[in-house]
Q: What sequence folds into this?
């Protein structure tokens, strides 16, 4: 069965450093998403991406965050100057269309120290 | 107030029991998703519903659009069903994001 692949699975970074989280969505999917889950809390939406541009973003997704689909297969989330409160599990997901199911990646656990 | 509420928050049962997890939402939706989150953190999509009922193996999901309520049932529960079950909705009117409930932690004892 096709998978959404996320790398790395774990990342530890110092506060103020930039991190890039990588995702390879399923090849025929058109919608791509980043969500995050702070430990012990519910999953929160960050951003959706369609047709090579951001189609929806949350209040969390401020200027510190950016997304790119640089080569038609990878989908990246960049956090420019990490803060302690960015520590969370970050999930990439993709779907074929809006009214189709999602496939989630296994997540990247980001720890900011 | 949370847009998506699940109950119970925690549920412990014996192997073989019939399990029901409930989800209520307060907004108009185009679809409701049931997801399973394993202890390692990974999320697996179980169902996407916009009306009626769906069944996959021992899992059944139902939705009542008028009452803004959905249930996830597990028949003949097994310890491997132990996980967090999450309800998430996609609002209507063109929204793309999912809004998540807080999850129900299910533990099935042998």
A:
């Amino acid at each position: 069965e096709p998978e959404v692949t996320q790398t790395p699975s774990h990342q530890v970074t110092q506060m103020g450093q930039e991190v890039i989280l990588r995702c390879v969505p399923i090849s025929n999917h058109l919608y791509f998403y980043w969500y995050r889950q702070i430990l012990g809390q519910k999953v929160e939406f960050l951003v959706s991406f369609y047709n090579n541009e951001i189609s929806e973003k949350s209040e969390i997704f401020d200027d510190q965050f950016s997304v790119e689909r640089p080569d038609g297969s990878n989908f990246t989330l960049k956090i420019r100057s990490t803060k302690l409160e960015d520590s969370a599990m970050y999930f990439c997901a993709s779907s074929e269309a809006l009214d189709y199911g999602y496939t989630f990646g296994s997540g990247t656990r980001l720890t900011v120290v | 107030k949370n847009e998506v509420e699940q109950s119970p928050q925690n549920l412990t049962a014996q192997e073989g029991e019939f399990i029901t997890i409930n989800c209520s939402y307060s907004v108009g939706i185009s679809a409701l998703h049931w997801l399973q989150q394993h202890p390692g953190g990974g999320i697996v999509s179980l169902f996407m519903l916009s009306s009626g009922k769906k069944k996959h193996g021992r899992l059944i999901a139902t939705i009542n659009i008028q009452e803004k309520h959905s249930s996830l049932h597990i028949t003949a529960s097994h310890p491997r069903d132990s996980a967090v079950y999450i309800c998430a909705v996609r609002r209507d009117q063109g929204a793309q994001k999912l809004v998540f409930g807080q999850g129900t932690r299910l533990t099935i004892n042998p």
